[in-house]
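INFO batch 0412 | record 1 of 1 | parsing
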Amino acid sequence: MSANHKRATFNTKVGLAVGLILVLVACSPRPSAQRATPAPNSTIEPVFVATERKLDRTGPTFGEPRNTGLRYFRADISVPASHAPGQIEWPEGPANAATDFVVAETQVYGDQSSFARAAHRSGPGQEVLLFVHGYNNTLSEAMYRLAQIRTDFRTPGTAVLYSWPSAGDPRGYIYDRDSVLYARDDLERLMKSLTANPNDRIVLLAHSMGSQLIMEVMRQAALKGDRRLLSRINSVVLMSPDIDPDVFRTQAQAIGDLPKPFLIFVSQQDRALNLAGFITGRKPRLGVIDSPDVVKGLDVKVIDFTALSDGEGLNHVVPATSPAAISVLRGMIGQAQSGERAFQDYMVLTQQP
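INFO prediction complete | emitting tokens
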């Protein structure tokens, strides 16, 4: 058998395996947020949400047309006292606030200005954490993920979720890549609204394909000469970024002076990104790089979480789902904020004894 024939046979087998995985995952039921009265000792995490989605569609929307214009609301997420770090405790039937994440209360805002004012009033300072979710995410999943991150990392201030029109279905990878382009202008307008006042600042946290979206928005602002908006970004964290490294380099070069710190969280055990690399031409994505050479010359810092991967969620959200990673990262953030220790340019984390 020739080498070319072997390679073609291998690619066919991999393609069939990928197709089978997508079909099986697509057939699995997706959990959805449920309302319930909070239980005693629950933690309430207010999450401000801006989204193109219809507010009554919190699940998958694969095959449906995208909506135009943003909608705004606040969801108070109740996190149970029994919550385990890294987990989202989904109900297996009717929600029980004593054991499950639930939506305790919601408030809808009529326009972007009232939404931004409410978001800034809810926190002690003028800095807002803006989270942009990744591929194959529903509105329910993105809200609960942000609430889980806030609980586990004890982040102060206001949390805002930008939920772009992901299909919420593993079969929608190409649809979601187009949705990222579709959403750029809306996210840029939201960022401008959240930084309208002189002292307003934002921290950008993006996961997976959401990293592509915020890079595109920052690049777009730079090409317009909008340094005011870029100057209001205090820091950027790309978690498991689903971006071609060559594309990332051109984006970063177009942006110019990147916000600092600019952190990239990677793991070579990220099976979701390895699959994405196969789909996009068998080239590793930015979130699985294993050498500082890939980002050489760029003012970014890479943190490698490979050793802390625990298999949860295809190892695609390790910094937020691995209890070991959460513990290590929380300590690193505390040291950096105190000035005791700065982030190195390329850090490979290890399991703590």
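INFO post-check: Confidence is low (pLDDT under 50) at residues 5-27.
INFO record closed
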